[in-house]
Amino acid sequence: MFGPDYTAGCPSCSAIADGFNGSVVHLANHDVTLCAVSRAPLAKLQAYKRRMGWSFPWASSSGSDFNYDFQAAVSKEQWLSGAVEYNFREMDLRPPAGEESSRNAWSESIVGTDWESYRREGPGMSAFALEDGAVYHTYSAYARGLDGLWGMYQWLDRAPLGRNETGMWWRRHDEYDSE
């Protein structure tokens, strides 16, 4: 949701977080803890959390392998090799030849960094269980597997025109016109 070099959180991840922010109290009262984890430094996460008005726990994994271990971040070496393991398959996240500048311009416009820095962070969700002092990894989902967590999609899927998507139509909730 927020890479170390980002100037703002990813708009897509921010929209997802808007939806799950209100669920935290309900989950906690069902013995479930929801916590977002991003690689940006904690101070940067806390400032963005205040801007967005969120109350869910948000931890920084800066300096650890957590996001890499769960394939939600890609190392420089993986990026350069073109062999990135994401969403349970190998892929190349580098832009096709000739598209570098347009991809850089796009990612700089939404998170303030180049395409590589943006795409080396990926959306993902993992679940863990704590039993007898041991932590077990029980579930992970990536990419479109996260649609179920994106609250507005659940409403749009039931609307007459459905998602009616044309490009990246959503914004951070404080960036829509107030008219």
List the main descriptive attributes of the protein structure presented here.
179 residues; alpha+beta; two-stranded antiparallel ribbon; 8 helices; 34% helix; globular
Can you walk through the features of this model?
The chain has 8 helices and 6 strands; from the N terminus they run H-H-E-H-E-H-H-E-E-H-H-E-E-H. It is an alpha+beta fold and 179 residues long.
- Enumerate the strands of the largest sheet in spatial order, edge to edge or round the barrel: 1-2
Question: End-to-end span in angstroms?
Answer: 28 Å
pLDDT average, as an integer?
92
Characterize the largest beta sheet: strand count, sense, and whether it forms a barrel: 2 strands, parallel
Helix content, binned percent:
25-40%
**Number of discrete domains:** 1
Gist?
The chain has 179 residues and is α+β, with helices and mostly antiparallel strands.
